[in-house]
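Changelog note: in this version the structure field was regenerated for every chain. One regenerated record is shown below for reference.
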Amino acid sequence: MAARYQTDISHILNNPDLIVPNYQIPPVHLYYKVVAKTLFVVSVHHKEDIRWVATMHETPTIKGLIENKIAPADFLYLRGGFKWKKWR
């Protein structure tokens, strides 16, 4: 299903609903966006001051939130609520 929305990747990156760190791989940030009533996540890697998109897929939940691996205090950005934090 995500393949149908690959042209929306730039929109997701520029207008995310939520950005969280990947608790398993700290230099990776997960950009979440609801598109057409479906939650998508774009995995953005960071190495040597370069960021690139690794993958995009549909997801039912925010990675790590239910497992208590991340908390709302770890959110880097939440549309309408939190301000940007520094990249880790």
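Spot check on this record: The chain has one domain: 2-78. The beta strands are 18-21, 28-35, 38-47, 50-58, 77-78.
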